[in-house]
Amino acid sequence: MDDHGFEEPIRILLVEDNPGDVRLVRESFDQVSAETSIRAVTDGADALDTLRDRQSAEVDLPDLVLLDLNLPRVDGFSVLEEIETDPELARIPCIILTGSRAREDIRKSYELAANTYLTKPSDPDEFAAMASSIEQFWFRHAVLPPA
């Protein structure tokens, strides 16, 4: 366990249906100083199944959720609602990472207890800078509730 309370690697659940964005996120987190393990799922239903399975099987929950809003089957807002209502899941930082800049999406995300709202960068260098910022803030500076 490092001095910030995280066992290595940092476990990230990425909920993203665009394979290109999944690749960019993986490559970007490969460049950060902390070791990360990214599990990617392509829709909100799989995200909820993953979170529920990890709870029932007593497998470690992710340290962070990166959540797109526009997903097949179950959208990101529904995932946020489910996370918010479950005390064990609600402690996990949930970052919206989406292409939407719509004011209503931003407002609704925060109302549903998203920890932050990021719009997807337009180039790979910006993705790398974003991953570094996430790593620095959430895993080096922020103090999170214990598991």
Spatial extent as radius of gyration: 14 Å
Overall SS class = alpha/beta
Number of helices: 6
Beta-strand content bin: 15-25%
Q: What is the CATH architecture term?
A: 3-Layer(aba) Sandwich
What are the defining features of this structure?
147 residues, alpha/beta, Rossmann fold, 5-stranded parallel beta sheet, globular
Explain what this protein looks like in three dimensions.
By secondary structure, the chain is an alpha/beta fold. It has one domain: Rossmann fold (3-Layer(aba) Sandwich). The chain contains six helices and five strands, in the order βαβαβααβαβα. The chain has helices at 19-30, 44-56, 76-85, 87-90, 103-111, 124-141, and strands at 10-15, 36-41, 64-67, 94-98, 116-119. A five-stranded parallel sheet has the order 2-1-3-4-5, sandwiched between helices. Strand 1, helix 1 (19-30) and strand 2 form a beta-alpha-beta unit. The protein is globular, with a radius of gyration of 14 Å.
